[in-house]
C-alpha cells in the first residue's frame, strides 16, 4: 500500500520528497478544488432548505384554512338540523349557496396542497441527490488525501522541520473539517427521508450512548442533573437532536473546566428539556441566526454550521418548540419541548 502511494507521489514530484513546498502546493490546490465544490453544495443546500421551510409554512397555513372551512361546514350542518315546525325566512342564511362556495374553496385548497406536496417531494429528491454527490464525489478523495498525508508523516517525520510538520497538521485539520461538513450534510438530508418510527426511549440510556460515541475532552463534564423521563419518539431523530446540542455545547466551550448540564421540567402534556453549558455564549444579534444552515460564528476546527440547523429541522418536523438563553462569556442554555 505504501509503495503504491509513493509511486503516486512520484508522478507529481519529480524530485521525490526533497521539495515539500511543491507537494504541499499540490495538496493545497486539491483542497481548494474540493472547497469550491463544498461552497456550491452549501449554496444549493441553503436554497433547498429555505424553499422547504417556506413550503412547510404554506402547508400549515392551508391546514389552518381547511380547519376553518370544516368549522363552517359543521355550523351549516347544525343549522340544517332544525325542528320541523321552525320556518326559515327568505332573507335568512342561504345554506345551499354557502355549501357550494365552501366546496369550491375546499377544492382549491386541496389542489394547492397537492401542488405544494409535489414541490416538497421534488425538493427532498434534490437534497438526496446532493447528499449522494457529496458522499461519493468528495468523501472518498478526502479519505485518500488524509491517508496519504498520514503515511508521509509516518515515513518522514524525523526529516521534516517544524514548519513542514505545521503545514501537514493544517492540511489534516482542514480535511477532517470537510469530512465533518459532509457528514453533517448527509445527516441533514436524512431527517426527512428516513421513515418516522416511534418507540419508547429511555433518555438516560440515550445520553449514555451519545457520550460513548462523541469525543469529550478530559476537561469537560456531562452532568445529568436528575433522572430523565421515558418518552415515545423516533430514536434516530431524538439521538440526532441530543447529540448535536451536546456536541455544540462541548465544541463552543473555552473554559478550563467545561460543564454541560442536562435537565428537564415536567408539565401536564409535555416535558421541557434543557441543555446548559458554561461556554463562550452567543451574541444578541446572532441568537436568531444560529439555527440557519451553514451559519457558524466561531472559527473552531469542528464548526460546520449544520448541527443546529439539523436540530431546528427535527424540532419543526415534530411540531415541538426550541428557544435559547445566552450570555457572552457565561454560557448558553437551549430549551426544547417533547410532548408526552
How would you sum up this structure, described in words?
This protein is of the alpha+beta class. Helix content is 60%, strand content 14%. β4 and β5 form a beta hairpin. About 3% of the residues have low confidence.
Distinctive features:
7 helices; five-stranded mixed sheet; 14% strand; single chain; 340 residues; two-stranded antiparallel ribbon; alpha+beta; 60% helix
> What's the rounded overall pLDDT mean?
76
Low-confidence stretches: 81-91
Percent of residues in helices comes to: 55-70%
Radius of gyration: 27 Å
Q: Which H/E pattern describes the elements?
A: HHHHEHEEHEEHEE
| Beta fraction | 5-15%
Which structural class should the secondary elements be placed in?
alpha+beta
**Overall geometric form:** globular
C-alpha termini separation: 54 Å
Spatial strand order of the main sheet: 2-4-5-7-6
The main pleated sheet reads as: 5 strands, mixed
Number of DSSP helical runs = 7
Total E-strand runs: 7
Task: Give the SSE layout.
Blueprint lengths: L1 H11 L7 H61 L14 H62 L5 H32 L4 E5 H11 L6 E5 L5 E5 H17 L6 E9 L3 E8 L29 H11 L4 E6 L3 E9 L1
Helix pairs in contact: 2-3, 2-4, 3-4, 4-7, 6-7
Report a brief summary of the structure:
The protein has 340 residues and is α+β, with helices and mostly antiparallel strands. It has 7 helices and 7 strands, in the order H-H-H-H-E-H-E-E-H-E-E-H-E-E.
Amino acid at each position: 500500500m505504501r509503495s503504491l502511494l509513493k509511486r503516486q507521489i512520484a508522478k507529481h514530484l519529480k524530485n521525490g520528497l526533497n521539495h515539500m513546498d511543491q507537494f504541499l502546493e499540490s495538496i493545497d490546490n486539491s483542497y481548494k478544488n474540493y472547497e469550491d465544490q463544498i461552497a456550491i453544495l452549501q449554496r444549493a443546500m441553503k436554497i433547498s432548505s429555505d424553499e422547504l421551510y417556506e413550503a412547510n409554512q404554506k402547508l400549515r397555513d392551508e391546514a389552518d384554512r381547511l380547519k376553518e372551512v370544516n368549522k363552517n361546514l359543521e355550523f351549516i350542518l347544525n343549522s340544517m338540523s332544525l325542528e320541523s315546525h321552525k320556518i326559515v325566512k327568505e332573507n335568512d342564511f342561504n345554506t345551499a349557496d354557502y355549501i357550494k362556495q365552501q366546496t369550491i374553496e375546499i377544492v382549491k385548497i386541496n389542489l394547492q396542497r397537492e401542488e405544494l406536496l409535489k414541490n416538497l417531494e421534488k425538493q427532498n429528491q434534490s437534497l438526496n441527490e446532493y447528499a449522494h454527490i457529496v458522499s461519493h464525489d468528495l468523501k472518498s478523495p478526502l479519505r485518500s488525501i488524509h491517508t496519504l498525508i498520514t503515511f508521509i508523516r509516518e515515513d518522514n517525520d524525523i526529516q521534516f522541520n517544524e514548519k513542514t510538520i505545521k503545514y501537514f497538521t493544517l492540511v489534516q485539520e482542514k480535511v477532517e473539517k470537510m469530512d465533518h461538513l459532509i457528514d453533517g450534510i448527509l445527516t441533514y438530508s436524512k431527517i426527512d427521508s428516513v421513515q418516522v418510527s416511534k418507540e419508547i426511549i429511555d433518555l438516560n440510556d440515550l445520553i449514555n450512548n451519545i457520550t460513548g460515541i462523541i469525543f469529550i475532552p478530559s476537561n469537560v463534564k456531562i452532568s445529568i442533573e436528575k433522572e430523565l423521563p421515558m418518552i415515545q419518539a423516533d430514536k434516530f431523530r431524538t439521538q440526532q437532536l441530543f447529540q448535536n446540542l451536546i456536541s455544540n455545547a462541548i465544541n463552543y466551550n473555552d473554559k478550563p473546566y467545561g460543564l454541560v448540564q442536562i435537565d428537564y421540567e415536567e408539565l401536564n402534556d409535555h416535558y421541557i428539556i434543557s441543555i446548559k453549558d458554561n461556554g463562550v455564549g452567543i451574541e444578541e444579534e446572532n441568537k436568531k441566526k444560529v439555527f440557519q444552515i451553514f451559519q457558524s460564528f466561531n472559527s473552531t476546527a469542528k464548526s460546520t454550521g449544520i448541527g443546529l440547523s439539523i436540530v431546528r429541522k427535527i424540532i419543526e418536523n415534530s411540531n415541538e418548540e426550541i428557544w435559547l438563553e445566552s450570555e457572552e462569556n457565561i454560557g448558553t442554555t437551549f430549551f426544547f419541548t417533547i410532548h408526552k
